[in-house]
Amino acid sequence: MEDIRPLTGQKRIQVSVCCNLCDAKEIKWKCIDCDILICTKCRNEKHPFDHLSVDIRLIGSLKKANSQNSSDFPVTECSQHGEKVSSFCRTCKKLLCLKCIEENLNANHKRHSIIQKEEYNRKLDIMIYQKERAFKNLKYIKEAKEEIYQKRKVETSNYYKMRKEILARKKAAKIKSIINTDSFKAELNFINYKWKNVIKAFREKQKMIEEDRKLLHRLNMKFENIIKSTDFATFLEDAEKMDILTQQESYKNLVKKCELKHHQNFSSIPKCEIGSAEFIVAKQFTTDLANIHYISSDSYDLLWIGDNTSAMLQKVKIDEQNILVESKYDIRIFGIASFSTGNLLICPYESSLMQISRNLGKIGNSKYRVRNLHVRAVHVTKDNRKVIVGARDNKGSVFPAYGNRVVIVMDRNGKHLAVHESDHEKNLFTYPRSITSTSNGNIFVIDQLSKDDTGRVVVLSEDGNKQSIYTGHPSNKENFTPVGIATTPTDKILVTDGNNHALHVLDCNGCFLVYIDTRDLGIIYPYSLAFTSSQKLLIGSVHGKENPGKGKLFEVVYCGI
């Protein structure tokens, strides 16, 4: 191998150099492709934009830093002819002068790969530039590592402050003998889920930064070793390999990511904060039912789902990833509701409700009955003291309305406490299909008006007077199609608007608060609603044109309602 260390004692003369394109004296750049020196104006206006131009200060500083180990093309004499060498034969791995090439053009070096002095210096310039580039990008990554560390500290502090504040409010509520502290569970669910996602995002970002740092460090060392190499053949071979690597898209993307400081972009990391009404799908499960028309959950988090179309009721359990069917019942249902004991009430569209005992698991008769009516909806109040049903006359078709359309309130023993049917001699309901209630005694009834599911929400006070009617969001031009209804821990009302893929939030008196487009959550045709004992919201969907597959069950965390 030829040693490329320079001769010592060589004198150098400093010459003033002008821009090769306009003769300007203020040289700033060297084009590696053209091997010319240019000013900034020519670089921006005349020089091809796709050529590699390098700040001459970077080249000069690195050449100086590595002057003990490397240099420009070796300044040495040919051992055979005594002339300065000006090229290198890669095939023979020998330094050549002009006479070497002339004498052996048709002999020893015919068709050999000859590298000229200019080509060598060009490759050296590229390696110097790439090393400086890698070194700078390593500094950017170091800054990003420190920044993400500080941001993670801030978000961690915010999370624990919010958690501490929620627990303090919960403790104060207990001291004041406020019974309903479920809203605090919902807040904790929300921030815990958000915090889990925040930590996950931080870890992914830190992992990506560390992987890029290691890669750049390896590249930086390779460039440095090539620049310091004193073996001509090895230098050329390694320089060309690295030149090919730097042309690859993966390398260009890495450099671009560093130089545009994408590592310092933390927009992908969510904030752990509680704002206005917000819903996040925490889990999603695909069931073997085509539709989830009904959901019910008790204090044991025993979960029931039902499909009216396929006449199927299932008892299921959900874990982190799966939904497990524990038992099935072939029965067509029109509503379900659970007691805190785990017993389930079923509407079979007959004059009495059926019941499934939590202990026995068998369907049997219940003590909740109506005469000459078919029960269409059932709801158990939160204190488990009342059962409220919606019913219609058992004769004639559903539409147009015929006969009695009523809401009946019963006690735990099945005794009728109140029957709500008319308001100033006008029928209150067309087809009561879903019911919920609030702690102030108000009853919310989804009243279906026609076959296309167009409907409204009728709000009754505890004494049965019509308090208000909600007919949908005023800005929505489509018909309001309410199908499912449930009460939040803070006495807000959630209503699913199936055909419009929406969720309406009302206050305890039926006034509109918030409109949520569930498509933004990935929920198409939302239908049924329920809350678990840990105050997570469950939303069941049905199939349709935009959702042709199986019914899906969504576990949702929320805040601000």
Written description of the protein model:
Strand 18 and strand 19 form a beta hairpin. Helix 2 (56-65) packs across helix 4, helix 4 crosses helix 6 and helix 5 runs antiparallel to helix 6. With 561 residues, this protein is α+β, with helices and mostly antiparallel strands. The protein is built from 7 helices and 32 strands. The protein has 3 domains: 29-117, Double Stranded RNA Binding Domain (2-Layer Sandwich), CATH 3.30.160.60; 123-264, no CATH class; 283-555, TolB, C-terminal domain (Neuraminidase, 6 Propeller). Mean pLDDT is 84; it is low at 1-13 and 64-71. Helices cover 28% and strands 29% of the residues. The chain has helices spanning 40-45, 56-65, 98-104, 117-175, 182-228, 232-246, 249-259, and strands at 29-31, 36-38, 53-55, 87-89, 94-96, 114-116, 278-286, 294-297, 303-307, 312-318, 323-329, 336-338, 344-346, 352-356, 363-369, 373-380, 386-393, 405-411, 416-420, 422-423, 426-427, 432-437, 443-448, 455-460, 466-470, 482-487, 493-497, 502-506, 512-517, 526-531, 537-541, 552-559. The relative contact order is 0.08. It is elongated, with a radius of gyration of 39 Å. The strands form 9 sheets. Strands 7-32-31-30 form a 4-stranded antiparallel β-sheet. A 4-stranded antiparallel β-sheet has the order 8-9-10-11, with no helix packed on it. The chain has a 4-stranded antiparallel β-sheet with strand order 12-13-14-15, with no helix packed on it.
